[in-house]
Design goal:
By secondary structure, the chain is mainly β. The protein has one helix and twelve strands, in the order αββββββββββββ. It has a single domain, classed as Immunoglobulin-like (Sandwich), CATH 2.60.40. 7% of the residues lie in helices and 44% in strands. The strands form three sheets. The chain has a four-stranded antiparallel β-sheet with strand order 1-3-9-6, with no helix packed on it.
Length: 177
């Protein structure tokens, strides 16, 4: 019974795989403000998502090896780097089909955080980071084929500032003794 829910989800997903392109999107990426970065100073990007009411998606650690975890993949342009990605903790959900196997899921809104940086040679300006969120949605009766939700956000690379030198009035050509 340990993997009954996982097996049931896989069977339903396989049966519906042929209609996957026509399936609704159960997760909506929410708008993200432009992220400003300076060379050598990473910034955090908070990517927000909303799961459709009445559905849940497997968390990044759903609790069964048979379930597909939610995973964010970002493809930054040259000169932009994406570091560690942190997934939120999901919450446990128990379904009638497998009452002894709680699943770890996301519902409502959730946030995935990543670190964004610019290389030392990055030209100041705006860059678009594209990616996708892979997830498997379920309701209380069945799971659906995995889907991809497009993700994008803008990174603004700021001009590098030179390190200011300490001003010594005694060395100034205009200094008076």
């Amino acid at each position: 019974m340990r993997s009954a829910l996982g097996l049931a989800c896989l069977l339903v997903a396989a049966a519906m795989a042929e209609t996957a392109p026509n399936m609704p999107s159960w997760v909506t990426p929410l708008p993200v403000a432009t992220i400003s970065v300076s060379s050598g100073k990473p910034a955090s990007v908070h990517l927000r998502f909303k799961v459709a009411e009445g559905y849940h998606i497997n968390s990044n650690q759903p609790g069964s090896e048979l379930l597909i975890p939610t995973k964010l993949q970002l493809n930054p342009p040259t000169d932009i780097g994406v570091g560690s990605i942190t997934y939120p903790k999901g919450h446990d959900l128990t379904l009638a089909i497998a009452p002894d196997q709680p699943l770890n899921v996301y519902t409502g809104e959730f946030v995935i955080t990543g670190k964004v940086s610019a290389t030392r040679t990055a030209t100041p300006g705006k860059y678009m980071v594209h990616g996708q969120l892979k997830y498997q949605a379920c309701n209380d009766r069945s799971c659906f084929p995995p889907k991809l939700a497009p993700v994008e956000f803008e990174v603004k690379v700021l001009k590098r500032t030179s390190t200011p030198t300490a001003h010594n009035p005694a060395q100034s050509p205009h200094a008076h003794p």
